[in-house]
Design a protein that fits this description.
Blueprint lengths: L4 E2 L6 E5 L3 E5 L4 E7 L2 E7 L6 E5 L4 E5 L4 E6 L2 E5 L4 E3 L2 E3 L6 E4 L4 E4 L4 E2 L19 E7 L2 E3 L12 E7 L10 H44 L9 H4 L8
Antiparallel strand pairs: 1-2, 2-3, 4-5, 6-7, 8-9, 10-11, 12-13, 14-16, 15-17
Length: about 240
């Protein structure tokens, strides 16, 4: 072994030197060169840092640099995140998105253009005027529709979601507020009053009939029975004197 190579290294190194740091790594660790000033130092890491991607070989696992415009990458030619000022599209970092796509400044990606979508119109509302449906001949009726899909930055904007048109109705008088309820209450009270009156009259009639019946029964008990008048024809019948 070379005098500058040590076997008792720290930080995951299999072999190392005092000047260059790690020269090889323990199994499953990645070897990467870090620049410190004018010197490069070898280190062993469990995963590659930002701007690098890992490659595994039978003898060593290495971290290689991504392309200059990539912040992170899967391979050198396939970026997973771009640096500031670039937009990711199909593994590439672009300054401008292709036709038919738009730049998403939140995700820094090129995405499809989304156009607005709306539902079908609702039925027309009742004809009204100043919030009322009576007391007029000409008014307005409206219909609405809802937004199903909001558009993206370059998408077609949403159309109007409400429409209004003139309408004509058969004029009718408005019922005064509370009048209908008051009339129903008065009718109910009158009906209850009439029922109560009829019930009282029926009760009085039954009481009077019962009193008359009791009085007749008492009179029959106190008056003497009348003797039956003799039959004049029997009194005048001839007496048989043959004996």
């Amino acid at each position: 072994v070379h005098p500058n190579v040590s076997q008792g290294c720290q930080g995951g190194c299999a072999t190392c030197s005092d000047y260059n740091g790690c020269l090889s790594c323990k199994p499953r660790l990645f070897f990467v060169l870090e620049r410190i000033g004018m010197k490069q130092i070898g280190v062993c890491l469990s995963s590659c840092p930002s701007g690098y991607y890992g490659t595994r070989y039978p003898d060593i696992n290495k971290c290689a640099k991504c392309k200059a415009d990539c912040d992170t990458c899967f391979t050198r030619n396939f970026c997973t995140k771009c640096k500031s000022g670039f937009y990711l599209y199909s593994g590439k970092c672009l300054e401008k998105c292709p036709d038919g796509l738009e730049a998403n400044n939140h995700t820094m990606e090129c995405t499809s253009i989304v156009h607005c979508e709306v539902s079908e119109w609702s039925p027309w509302s009742p004809c009204t005027k100043k919030g009322k449906t009576c007391g007029f001949k000409r008014g307005n009726e409206v219909r609405i529709r809802e937004i199903i899909q909001h558009p993206s930055a370059k998408g077609n904007p949403c159309p109007a979601t409400s429409e209004s048109r003139k309408c004509i109705v058969q004029r009718k008088r408005c019922q005064k507020e509370g009048k209908g309820k008051k009339n129903r209450e008065e009718k109910r009270k009158k009906s209850n009053k009439d029922e109560s009156k009829e019930t009282r009259q029926e009760s009085k009639g039954r009481a009077a009939r019962r009193q008359n019946r009791e009085q007749r029964e008492n009179n029959n008990k106190t008056q003497p029975k009348k003797r039956k008048a003799p039959n004049k024809e029997q009194d005048l019948a001839p007496v048989d004197t043959a004996h």
